[in-house]
Amino acid sequence: MKAKVKNLIDRGTYRKLPLFEGELPEGSYAQIVEIKPRQTVKRHYHEKQYELFCILSGEARLGIGETEYPARPGDIFLVKPKTVHWVVNERDEPFRLFVVKLNYHGDDSVWLDE
After folding, report:
1. Which residues of 40-56 are buried (b: 16+ CB within 10 A; e: fewer)?
2. Which helix (H) or strand (E) holds 70?
3. What does each C-alpha distance from 68 to 49, 52, 55, 84, 107 come to in angstroms?
4. What is the pTM of this model?
5. How many whole angstroms separate alpha carbon 67 and alpha carbon 7?
6. Which tens digit of pLDDT belongs to each residue from 56-73?
């Protein structure tokens, strides 16, 4: 099936574009996320869902657990449930990634105070 491209949803430091919401097998969700230039997505985790990230364009620092990785196009990362993660885009261009959420049953994000 072909993705149903809808409108971008602005979340302040990032934007997201849902692609297969409600179309993938139960418990799955796919979207493109764009971290805006010079922005950070704060530390957070998910109660039950896994997230699989495939970097599409740009470069950023991607934190997963206790480790921070340089993230570049072609890199793939897996974030397990209850694992704290974040993104820092220090560049002047957007950082884009394709995100597949597994075991997804609605938003289960827990945002941490810094």
Report:
1. bbeeebbeebbbebebe
2. strand 67-71
3. 20, 16, 15, 11, 24
4. 0.89
5. 33
6. 999 999 999 999 999 999
